[in-house]
Design goal:
mainly beta, 2 helices, 11-stranded mixed β-sheet, 7% helix
């Protein structure tokens, strides 16, 4: 069952919000950034095996050795950062929003802001050797939509709802974002909130510094379209380059 978990005291709750309807924000002053914002946001990745793609090729003998079976956690992570690896079709992460002020605030929206949408990455594919990540994620984000929203059971979560956070309270969104089309997408998050004086603000949340991008995801192309396709070796102890004819 889909849910958003709540953290903090029982004073936290949902309220009906007339500021937002199905078409977006109602007529009001636009959100603005405030450097003294009381809202604190932390994004943490959901780690696990998944297909990875990159716009860069793995070319040096040292980097190829990492893929072919000589990897340690440190060299593996360093390689993924070096080539700017992103996940294929989906990412998973949690967003924790906390009121760090001494007064109540009301979170009225969290908006994915698309900053790049291009054709899917077709340079390098790296197939996972281990198990895949869990598919049970409470909040969905469909990046195939031109104006994506966080949804539960197919319905926008922040359309007519907001969360009132008393001082010290917070809430957690466990997110699964999907991109099934032949595109590549980058985005960041914008958290809209109203302070105790009724003024509306927004906080821009950039991608966390993780080994694999969480606010970047690529759709898939046919296996034969990738310049380099790193599949598992026979013993699944490392990777090897697959010729075009070996790819399904």
């Amino acid at each position: 069952m889909s849910f958003i978990t709540g953290l903090g005291s029982s004073l936290q709750g949902f309220i009906t919000d007339a500021l937002f309807d199905e078409k977006g924000p109602a007529a009001s002053a636009p959100p603005h950034s405030d450097p003294s914002t009381p809202i604190k946001v932390v994004v943490l990745p959901d780690e696990g095996g998944t297909y990875l793609v990159s716009e860069k090729r793995v070319e040096s003998a040292e980097d190829k050795a990492v893929l072919t079976g000589g990897a340690t956690p440190e060299t593996w992570n360093r390689l993924l950062r070096k080539i700017g690896a992103v996940t294929l079709n989906r990412t998973a992460y949690t967003v924790t929003v906390t009121n760090a002020s001494s007064s109540p605030v009301r979170v009225v929206n969290i908006v994915p802001v698309i900053t790049r949408r291009t054709k899917a990455i077709d340079t390098t594919m790296i197939v996972p050797l281990g198990g895949m990540e869990s598919d049970t994620i409470p909040v969905e984000l469909n990046l195939d939509n031109r104006y994506p929203k966080f949804t539960q059971n197919g319905k926008p979560y922040f359309t007519r709802k907001s969360q009132v956070l008393e001082p010290g309270d917070g809430f957690v969104m466990a997110v699964e974002s999907k991109l099934l089309g032949r595109e590549y997408v980058e985005y960041h998050l914008r958290v809209d909130y109203i302070d105790n004086k009724g003024s509306k603000h927004s906080l821009q949340v950039k991608e966390p510094d993780t080994t694999v991008g969480r606010f970047r995801v690529s759709g898939r192309v046919d296996d034969k379209e990738y310049t380099d396709y790193w599949g598992s070796n026979e013993g699944r102890t490392g990777h090897r380059l697959y010729s075009t004819g070996e790819r399904k």
